[in-house]
Amino acid sequence: MISTATYKKLCGVVSITDGGVVMVDAEKDGARWRVKDHSFTPFESEALDAAVISEAIASSLKEGVELTAITLPDDMARFAVLNFKSLPSNPVEAAKIIGWKAEKEHFAKEGTLKTSFSVISRTDEGVVVLAVSIDSLLLDELESNLDTLGISVPFINTHTLSLINLFSSVLTSDSPFAFVARFTDHFTAALINNSVVSMIRLKEFEGEDEFMNEVKGSLRYFVDILQGKSVDRLYLVNEGGEGVLGELGLEVNSLAASTVAELGGAEAGENGIYLLSALGLLESMLD
Fold first, then answer.
1. 240-265, pLDDT tens digit by residue?
2. How many structural domains does the chain have?
């Protein structure tokens, strides 16, 4: 964790979307971060690359606001749950082994992914980790372009993992449950068991019917992973509306709309989910 004393009172967090960047100026308010201001800067080109992203970030930064973090779309990352008989106690050596296995899992060439991880479980039978990998070339080019523009590269995470962190105080249950973050044309479903993300699944969809079918498929997949143990609760963070998941036959809790208003982003509209992602990333970084 990094102490809040390291940062100015006002922090800038960029949430990257399919069409541009949402810049969130956030300030500490007691135990939580709140939105002080926010803006949307569209990309100047449909050919999304590090240069286009960097230019949009530079255009969105206000004077006196320090860029603290970036949240990336989930489909810019690759997720994997990896099993090991054991891992070295040295974190650097452990990271090397996990990164190597993540590249094998995704059929990627050696050195083409940068991987971070969190431990799901550690028992006498072995170690299970959630690995999040991002294309090395994209990150290196983003760092280089931002550096050219005089902007230091901040902490980076994905939207859904940042959202899960933001809502960690309510995402508690003795039994497994699902967390779904719905975006314009895709959603990310996470299985949370014993307060730990134990599986992540990203699916594209077109329209409500396909969304419902894909969510049902994800729930069935989670039940298979749990070897028949039920998933009886779902938490939904939904871009641009509440959605309809009532026919799933389980408890559905919608988290987005009221929380956006509560944390200062009442007029964010469809960008509300990206404001929440930005705040969640800040809270994961700072005490």
1. 545 556 667 788 888 876 677 677 66
2. 2
Q: What angle do CA 76, 68, 13 make, to 5 degrees?
A: 60
Residue 32 lies in a domain: no
Structural domain of 92: 77-136
Statement to judge: residues 180 and 246 lie in one domain: yes
Q: Residues 133, 114: contact at Cβ < 8 Å?
A: yes
Bridge-partner residues for 234, per DSSP?
178, 252
Query: Do the beta carbons of residue 254 and residue 243 sit within 8 Å?
Result: yes
**Sign for the pseudo-dihedral over CA of 144, 148, 154, 159:** negative
**Among 54, 34, 32, which Cα is nearest to 44's?**
54
pTM of the complete model: 0.87
- Quote the tokens at residue 222: 């989670």
Q: Residue 24, SS3? A: strand
- Based on the domain organization, do 230 and 184 belong to the same domain? yes
